[in-house]
Amino acid sequence: MTDREDAKRRWVRSTGFLAGLTLFISLIIFFHGLLPGRYIFFERDLGPYFIPPRFFWVESIKSGHFPLWNPYQFTGHPFFANPQYGVLYPLNSLFFLLPFDIAFNAIIVLHFLLGGLFTYFLLRELKTDVTGSLISGLIFMLSGYLLSVHSLLTILLSVIWTPLIMIFFRRAIANPGFKNEVLTAILVTFSFLGGGIEIVYGNFFVLLIMLISFPSSHSSPLHGVIPGEAGTQTTFLRRQETIAQESGFPRNKYGAGLVLPGMTKYIRLVSPYIKGMRSLIVVSILFLFLSAIQLLPFLELFHHSIRGKGVSYQEATIWSFAPKDVLLFFLPDAYGYWLDMKKYWVNQCWFKTLYTGGLPFILSLIFFLTPHPRPLPQCGEGNKNNFPFSPVGESEAEGRGKKFFLFLMLFSLFLSFGKYNPLYPYLFKYLPFLNGIRYPVKFLSIFIIVLSITAGLGFQRLTEFSKEAEKKRFKNLLIIFSLVFGLFLLFLVVNHKGVEEFLKLRGIDLPDFNRLSVNLHHAKRFLFYLTLFFLLLRVGHEVKWKWWTKVLLVFFLTADLFGNMGFYGKVKTQDYFKKTETVEIISSDKDRFRIFSTPKTISFDIPILIANASSLNIFKEKHFPAPNLLYRLYDIWGVDVVRLKRVDDLYIAFVNSPSISATNLVDLYGIKYVISVTLLEKEPRFELIYSRLEGLEGKKEDLLKENTVKLYRVRYPFPRAWLVKNFKVMDDDAVLSRMISKEFHPGDEVLLEEEPIQFRNAKLGVENPKSETRNPKPSKRLVGKVEFTSETNNELCLRVEAKEDAILVLSDTYYTGWKVFVSGAREKIYRANYNFRAVPLKAGEREVRFVYDPLSFKIGELVSIFTLVGIGVYFAKRKRHVT
């Protein structure tokens, strides 16, 4: 018992535990604003795009319905197939252990902590001391980059795994083995399940660059066996078999390797990369198999989505990293993007803050510009953790380490610049999969991670310098820089007004920049910390980095990074989930219908007139489609970056029509309620039933003409499912063209793209542009009844009574994976009216059941399960064999 207590005390006192505790406490202080009361993170994309889908799938699973399909948005849309929703992401299991809002916040904060810890672990793997590792962890965890992407949740959930992926892939190429390859593949899968597809794409580039930069000496079969080096020709011949086996070359008919003396030069170049390439291939294959349950449905969705054939270059390069925005690393929001949303959208900065401060760049430059002060031990078979990544000699390891990290930083910037990079059009055209990825600025994650790593390595250099003989030049440089920046700071403080007037005359103020007073404050703060850091580095060097100097450096680094504190939004949970009066009215209607919020209403560029116009109230009163998921309301639109192309085409045709009544698509969609800031007084089909005028001054007639939120009800709404007799067979372009004309009436006819087998020889009314018209006169609407009996995420049941043979039309999205059973018998679903479903029915009463059962999900599920079982069996046998 005493030994156990002593072990616990030693562990608590260990520097590793204290480093982790430092990261944890720093993070709690950073996000202390969430602690009092019940708040939920609410900023940028979190409110409209990330909270509602997660709430939907969590509540669906709790009620026993897996969310393969989302019936509430886009007239129905694949849900699980999009990895951005993170249904299978392991850490999202917190949603089932805690209340939703607490779990949502905890997941975000936890990923900040994991990002810091994983970076710390990577530096420890590189034999960096605890302080250097802690500095790296703090820089990444509290960086402006990570804080900015917390509102782009998929990036946060995916990017924090990159340091851990680097650790295990490093081990895999240093000492090839299946264990580290499996762990690397699992971590890449976690990153993919987090939803950051761009991060996973970038991670494979990181692994490839690691492989090229650090070939493993263990993979070279030619060591000591090449003629002229081995000593005798006999040795060379005796080793041919080994060379052939390890290099992958063929054997002759006698079983001997076919390695000839003339091939040795080629093999010498290739062989160091063979086992490393094998590791990368194994990791890639395992990743594909492990992620198949998510990957196959995603690829299927991607193929049918607006990105299936790639996106335009203009769209893909939105949110490129402008070179001028490098300034944001040192001055938060220097250009005032967040003062004016129009300016933000025009400049497309994407980051709310990039502030990193001066110390990370100072330490990183020290790493790159100074030689390593001590001999580097060789990486033997049992010594896999030496700096930096591969088993090479001192100078080669140092050079490769610097080149590797420098290349990663430049590669990251090269991609991040996007449209500002003159070579990016060629990458966009020829680099696989890049034409399906938007926002090049996302690739800046690699730069931030490498900056954090090299800062920790730079501090390690400093501590080793201090143990060597006196380096007067280096010490003098530190004190000179401290004095120079201190004098700049003093100049700004003493001549504040003069500097302010000077900069105003040169336009360094609104509207091109942030308020000058704000930028000057940040500049003084930056110069203060630069002066302090250089002074601390000089003092630390002088006293050979005693513990108290390390503590001071970590403390002031944290204080500097806390300059980002407050750069996150929060609202009270009950206020976020509270229904507006508009939603209350719609929710009270239990019919089957859909909602339409006009584009002008949901546009970020169009202000709305309401009392108490807080950001939350504006967000809620605009009634974006995605938050309707919170209340299970059916909408014709939604938010999904990989939405189906036909859904997109039809919606664009609808909203681009001259007026809401210029077509009959309101009926086709099954719209009953319209939310609009535009007055629809000239539209007799719509009656005004509510307007958000509370707290506004003025006459009601005048206020209705302003951009106030108004709720209209369609006087005679069309159902979501109905019966028709007439159909026309047309190609997809002709279908869409006819649908946007006033002549198209969804209750009179249905437009198909192939003729139903059941009616080819029947007398049902049909018109085919390519054949003779059999029934040119439109018939009256059929007498029949369609009743909804039940509906869940993945299943819809109807009871249909048809007086004669007819076609059942359902204004729900047509998509592969849907099956229909008519009175228990499987039937075919036809694409109707460009994007919807149709089922031919015989006369009589029928039970019609639609079931979403995608083959891609079932195949992916089997592949992933068998892969996990196989990995488990392998390690179980391996453990038994070792035992």
Can you lay out the helices and strands and say which pair or pack?
Blueprint: H1 2-13, H2 15-30, E1 39-41, H3 46-62, E2 69-70, E3 77-78, H4 100-125, H5 130-141, H6 144-149, H7 153-159, H8 162-174, H9 178-193, H10 197-213, H11 233-238, H12 240-247, H13 264-290, H14 292-304, H15 313-316, H16 341-347, H17 359-369, H18 394-416, H19 424-430, H20 444-466, H21 472-494, H22 496-505, H23 516-542, H24 547-561, E4 570-572, H25 573-577, H26 581-587, E5 594-597, H27 599-602, H28 615-622, H29 645-655, H30 665-669, E6 671-676, E7 686-691, H31 700-705, E8 710-714, E9 721-724, E10 726-729, H32 732-739, E11 749-752, E12 766-767, E13 784-792, E14 795-802, E15 806-810, E16 818-822, E17 825-827, E18 830-832, E19 836-841, E20 844-852, H33 855-882
Helix pairs in contact: 2-4, 2-5, 4-5, 4-7, 4-8, 5-20, 5-24, 7-10, 8-9, 8-10, 8-13, 9-13, 10-13, 10-18, 14-33, 17-20, 18-20, 20-23, 21-23, 23-24
